[in-house]
Recover the amino acids of this structure.
RNA sequence: GCGGCUCUGGUGAAGUGGUUAACACGUCGGAUUGUGGCUCCGAUAUGCGUGGGUUCGAUUCCCACGAGUCGCCCCA
C-alpha cells in the first residue's frame, strides 16, 4: 500500500496540470473583474473554529472532520471548508479596519472524511468567494452572479440556479416550530432518517429523497408564511436584482444548506448530468457567523465551487483541451566529446530562452532521434564527431526533415528566427 | 457510516482448479557505415489487489481487509 495515495486523494499529474492552471487563471480573472482579492489561509485551524463556525450537529462537524492532536496537545483540524477560516482571518487581521465591504476569494484544498465516489473526494479543491461587511441584498446578487458568470463562461450548459431564503434568527425558529408541529402529525409516515430530523433539523425533511415527494410533505407550510418583514423584503430584492441581470433562477423552497451559519439567502448551482453529486456551487448569507466566532456582528455572504466537479462537467462536455507543452529543441549527440558540446549548447539555448533538452541515456543516435521525434520538439540539434571538430551543429527541422549545418554561435538565432 | 458491482502487465483486455497467463496498444532494442515519423524482427506479467482458508494443487472456489466505482447519507 506504500504505492497508493490515501483513500479519496488524487495526484494531479503533469498531463492535467495545464487544465488546473487554466481554470485557476479564469478564477483569478473573474474575481478581479468583480473586485475580489485573493486570500490564503492555513490548511489547518483550531478545531474549535469549525465547531463554532460550522455548528455542532452538522454532518461536516460530527463525522467528516480530519481532527488530530498536535505535539503541543492542541486539537487541530484540516479545514473542511474555508468560510470559517476566512472570517477568522478577517477578524484576526482586522481587515474590517479599512471600512466598507471586504471582498475576498480563495482557491485551495479542503478535507472531509467521507466515502469517496464520483465528484466526492476526501481532499478536494474549492474556489470560493466571501463578501464581508454588507447586508445589502445587492451583494447577494453580486455573489450569485459571480458564481453564475464564472460557470457560464467555462462553457457549461444545463446549469440550474436555485435560490431560497432560510430566514434569520427572528423568523426561522418560528418556521421551525411550525414544521415540527406539522410533521409531528405525520410521524408514522416519515422515513427513519426524517423521524430523527424532526427535532434536529426539520427543514431537511423537505428535501428528503424518500419523503420529499409525499403529499403531506409537499403540502407542508412554506417558509414564506413565516418570514419576518426584513427577510421577506431582502429575498424579494435579491430576486429583483437577479432578474435585472437577466439570470434565470428558480425559487426552491426545499433548498436547505447543511451548515448552521446560513441566514436569509441560500443558493445552489447544479449541473444535473453529474448525477448524485450535481451541486457544483453552493453558498449563501451568514449574517450570524462573524459574531459567533467572536467579532462584532457583521453580515457576510459567500459561496464555494467544487473544482473536481467542474472538471467532470467540463469533461462531459468535451471542454477540456489537452495542453501540450512542446519544447523547441532536442539535442542529439554521438560520442563523449559531443555530449560535452551538447551540454554547452543546451546552456546557450536556455539562456536565450529557448526550451531545450537532451537524452541522457547514452542511446544510439537513431534511438535519440526517436526520442526527439516523440518529444514533439521542432528541431533536432545533432552533434557528432564532425560537428565537434569544427564547432558546428546540424539543425534538423523535424517537421520538414530539412537540415542544415550552422556554427554553434548561430544556432540560437536561427531557431528563434 | 450503510448497500450493490468490480480488482489480471505501462494501458485496453482474453483466460483456466493442474505443463510456457492469449491478443492489441505502448515501451525498449534491432534491420551494416552518424539521423525520427511507415514497414519488418525481437524483448517486455516466476505474475493474476493484499492476507488467510479449502484442495494433492488456485490467478481461477470461500472469507477478511484494501482500493475503485455506483447509490444512500451529506455535500463542493
Amino acid at each position: 500500500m506504500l504505492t497508493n495515495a490515501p483513500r479519496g486523494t488524487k495526484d494531479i499529474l503533469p498531463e492535467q496540470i495545464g487544465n488546473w492552471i487554466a481554470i485557476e487563471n479564469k478564477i483569478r480573472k473573474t474575481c478581479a473583474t468583480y473586485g475580489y482579492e485573493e486570500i490564503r489561509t492555513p490548511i489547518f485551524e483550531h478545531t474549535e473554529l469549525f465547531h463554532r463556525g460550522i455548528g455542532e450537529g452538522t454532518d461536516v462537524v460530527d463525522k467528516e472532520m480530519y481532527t488530530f492532536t498536535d505535539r503541543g496537545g492542541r486539537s487541530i483540524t484540516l479545514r473542511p471548508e474555508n468560510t470559517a477560516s476566512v472570517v477568522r482571518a478577517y477578524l484576526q487581521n482586522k481587515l474590517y479596519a479599512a471600512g466598507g465591504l471586504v471582498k475576498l476569494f480563495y482557491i485551495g484544498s479542503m478535507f472531509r472524511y467521507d466515502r469517496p465516489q464520483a465528484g466526492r473526494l476526501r481532499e478536494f479543491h474549492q474556489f470560493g468567494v466571501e463578501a464581508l461587511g454588507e447586508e445589502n441584498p445587492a451583494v447577494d446578487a453580486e455573489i450569485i452572479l459571480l458564481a453564475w458568470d464564472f460557470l457560464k463562461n467555462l462553457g457549461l450548459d444545463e446549469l440550474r440556479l436555485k435560490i431560497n431564503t432560510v430566514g434569520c434568527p427572528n423568523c426561522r425558529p418560528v418556521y421551525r416550530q411550525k414544521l415540527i408541529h406539522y410533521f409531528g402529525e405525520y410521524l408514522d409516515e416519515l422515513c427513519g432518517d426524517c423521524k430523527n430530523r424532526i427535532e434536529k433539523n426539520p427543514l431537511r425533511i423537505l428535501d428528503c429523497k424518500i419523503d420529499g415527494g409525499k403529499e403531506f410533505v409537499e403540502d407542508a407550510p412554506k417558509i414564506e408564511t413565516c418570514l419576518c418583514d426584513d427577510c421577506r423584503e431582502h429575498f424579494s430584492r435579491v430576486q429583483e436584482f437577479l432578474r435585472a441581470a437577466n439570470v434565470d433562477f428558480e425559487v426552491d423552497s426545499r433548498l436547505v444548506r447543511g451548515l448552521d451559519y446560513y441566514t436569509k439567502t441560500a443558493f445552489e448551482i447544479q449541473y444535473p448530468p453529474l448525477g448524485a453529486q450535481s451541486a457544483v456551487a453552493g453558498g449563501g448569507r451568514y449574517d450570524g457567523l462573524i459574531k459567533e466566532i467572536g467579532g462584532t456582528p457583521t453580515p457576510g455572504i459567500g459561496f464555494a465551487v467544487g473544482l473536481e466537479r467542474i472538471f467532470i462537467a467540463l469533461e462531459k462536455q468535451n471542454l477540456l483541451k489537452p495542453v501540450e507543452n512542446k519544447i523547441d529543441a532536442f539535442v542529439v549527440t554521438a560520442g563523449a566529446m559531443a555530449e560535452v558540446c551538447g551540454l554547452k549548447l543546451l546552456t546557450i539555448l536556455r539562456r536565450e530562452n529557448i526550451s531545450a533538452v537532451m537524452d541522457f541515456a547514452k542511446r544510439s543516435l537513431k534511438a535519440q532521434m526517436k526520442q526527439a521525434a516523440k518529444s514533439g520538439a521542432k528541431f533536432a540539434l545533432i552533434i557528432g564527431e564532425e560537428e565537434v571538430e569544427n564547432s558546428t551543429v546540424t539543425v534538423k527541422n523535424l517537421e520538414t526533415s530539412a537540415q542544415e549545418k550552422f556554427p554553434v554561435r548561430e544556432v540560437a538565432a536561427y531557431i528563434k528566427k
In short: The first strand of chain A starts at residue 37 and ends at 38. Residues 48 and 75 of chain A are 8 Å apart (CA to CA).
